[in-house]
Amino acid sequence: MQFDCARCDELLLDFAYGELDELTGAAFKRHADGCARCTAALADVRVVRDVFGMLPMETPAQNLDARILAAAEARRLELAAGRAKPAPEAPRSFWTKLLDAFRAAAMRPQYAMAMVLVLVVGIVLVLAPEMSRSPGRDVAMAPEPGQAPSAAAPMDDVAPAAPAGSDAPQPVTLVPEPEALRQEAQESQSGRGSRAAPARRRTAEDAEAALGERLARGPEATPQSEANREGGLDERRAGPVAEPQATSPIKASPPGFARAPVELDGDQAQGLAATARDDRAEQQQMQFARPPAQAPAPAPAARQQRSLEAATSQAQQGGSIGAPYRGADSDSYERGMTRFRAGQFRQAIPDLEAAVSRPGLDGSSLANAYLAIARSYRQVGSCGEATRRYEELMRRFTGYSQNADVSWEAAECYRAMGMNERADQLYRVAERAGRYAERARARRVMMEGARRAARPAPAAADAYEAAPAEAEAGAPSSAH
Amino acid sequence: MRPRTDGPSDELLLQRYQGGDPSAFGELLARHRRPVYNFILRYLGDKNQAEDLLQEVFLRIVQGAGDFKGESKFTTWLYTIARNLCIDTARKMVFRRHASLDGPTSSSEDGDGPSLMERIPNQSAAVDREAIGRELRPHLAQAVEALVHEQREVFVMREYMSLPFKEIADIVGVPENTVKSRMRYALEKLRESLAEYEDYAKALR
Fold first, then answer.
1. A242, β-bridge pairs
2. C-alpha span between A425 and A166 (Å, rounded)
3. What is the pLDDT of residue A263?
4. Do B63 and A84 lie within an 8 Å CB cutoff?
């Protein structure tokens, strides 16, 4: 048999451990004797074998044999008696096998790491879409009342009201877009524009859902909701109750109106979305806003319609923002609140101003009126007037249950006006209220960053972006 | 050391045991208890555990004797059982610190007792060789213990249990060439570990 070094390498271990047949072994030896390389390789193996062969074989304990024999005999007898069947493994379920396989794999670090990785990636893949649709994110991204509609509806284009009791369709355009908040939207959109669209879609869905609920309640709401609407701000913009339809225009019935349908275009629907969500949240938080027990009964729909018609007409003819409403009467509070809730902020202001200027309103209604005025001013972009009312509200109604909202909204106004010091103070106040804590903190971080550099530092921007709640849109829009 | 093979084969002994001859089992135990014990001990490094597992191995032999058809060698079956038990046990004690063969034995309360290697007398060795070997053994044991599990089991089975490569391949469940490859790597690493004790090694030759 012809041998070369490669063949020798192949058979080296077999030769060293005596596993070659006689003929092959002899051939190997002949080659190795004449080859220094293979001789050296063989010597290496032999050295290791010689040395490690010194490691003695351990001897088990002396009594172990007896123990094993006794145990074996006992086991044999059991088997013979049929008490212990030889390894009849119970049939295992699929899940047991799967679990065993998982356990076995998990014991190996590399498998365990791979499993963890797969698990993490899976969780991220599953949760990422959910998080992008989560309420918190929606809240963060949903436009503020003034942000949503890209094309602002005319402020005064309230269509002529249908006669009382008429079922004729009545187109009404809702929710004007405040300028100040639009500025804020532009600031925010610079970093979040890409997320705005899904949020708007979401809010539109919410709006449809809310409108569906209201439709189910019917144009004339229950006494309870009617009372809420009358005395409080919780449903101040609960105006449109639209039948959810695939395409606009959406026909809706403003509350207090007898089936006066409202036609909404796409942007209006978005604006309405924020309103709808706000309504739900505010129903829970603005309990104070409900009128006291002795509050006047809600005006009938026809009466409200007439009041609104008159107010609208007057405002269109010469009413200016903040100007005293010459036609104010005893219903000015109701009318103002109705308009406020309907999103007719410019028209609501004179009524509410008139209402607060005369004695007679109870404390809670007065506070509501001030808040509605402030919000109306804010909605129409008059932050200066708004802050004046907010400050008055805070000064006069120290125990006001809505003070967290007031502080937050006032701070937002001050910030919009560049009065950062006062804004910071109010953000601190709002921060103490759990609901605004994170947003207020984020705002303060952002302002601090802006103070430190002409351009906001990345950290500040991040903090802002990270502000979870940016629940701005989702927090009751009353908060804006 | 390969158990002596004079006398009836392992397979025949098992057959006799299946036929109701308990002494055949005693003979099998006497033949294989030491190498199997050492295999387990080298695998797990724990004496007490090695004894427990040795008992379990032979109980499984008893339990499975009826199913043994003689299609493979008895030792292949025996070491397959032992190895599987070792793997299971090693998984369970993966975070446990194994007692080193070089460490003090548990019999010594104060921990100053001789190591397992030192306790084993080697009557047949020459005095000089014994003296040198006694010094070297702890290092050798450490070197074996430092081998990766796949190489260590192959080395132990080939070197100390004297199992042929083919049988090791059957036990481990890999091709014979893979076994040889692992063995080659094991020898290479052990030779490297010997470098600093070369003088001892030469003296032992």
1. A252
2. 51
3. 43
4. yes
What confidence tens digit (pLDDT) does each residue in A8-42 have? 888 999 999 998 888 898 998 889 888 999 999 99
Kindly report the CATH number assigned to the domain that includes residue A239.
Answer: 1.25.40.10
Verify whether the Cβ–Cβ distance A58 to B122 is below 8 Å.
no
Half-sphere exposure of A351 (CA within 13 A, CB side): 27
Pull the structure tokens for residue A277.
């969500």
Q: Which of A260, A254, A256 is nearest to A230 (CA)?
A: A256
Task: Give the 3-state secondary structure of residue A122.
Answer: helix
Q: How confident is the model at residue A430 (pLDDT cuts 50, 70, 90)?
A: confident
Taking the Cβ of residue A60 and every Cβ of chain B, the question of whether any pair is shorter than 8 Å is answered with yes
Which segment of A113-127, A422-436, B65-79 scores lowest on mean pLDDT? A422-436
Alpha carbons A222 and A283: distance in angstroms, whole number: 14
Determine, for residues A54 and B120 on separate chains, whether the beta-carbon distance falls below 8 Å. no
Identify from A51, A73, A89, A103 which residue to disrupt to test chain B contact, counting B C-beta atoms within 10 A and taking the largest count.
A51
Q: Decide which of 1.25.40.10, 1.20.1530.20, 3.20.20.140, 1.10.10.10 is the CATH code for B115-205.
A: 1.10.10.10
Those of residues 148-177 in B touching chain A at CB distance below 8 A are 158-160, 164-165
For chain B, say whether A17 makes contact (Cβ under 8 Å). Answer: yes
Question: Tens of pLDDT along A251-290?
Answer: 333 333 333 344 444 444 454 444 445 444 444 444 333 4
* Stretch(es) of chain B classified as CATH 1.10.1740.10: 1-96
| Chain B contact probe: residue of A47, A49, A54 with most B CBs at under 10 A | A54
| Smallest Cα distance from A122 to chain B, Å | 27
In a domain? residue A38? yes
Structure tokens at A67: 């123990």
Position A415 confidence tier, pLDDT thresholds 50, 70, 90:
confident
Give yes or no for A20 touching B (CB within 8 A): no
Residue A73 lies in a domain: no
ipTM of the modeled complex: 0.73
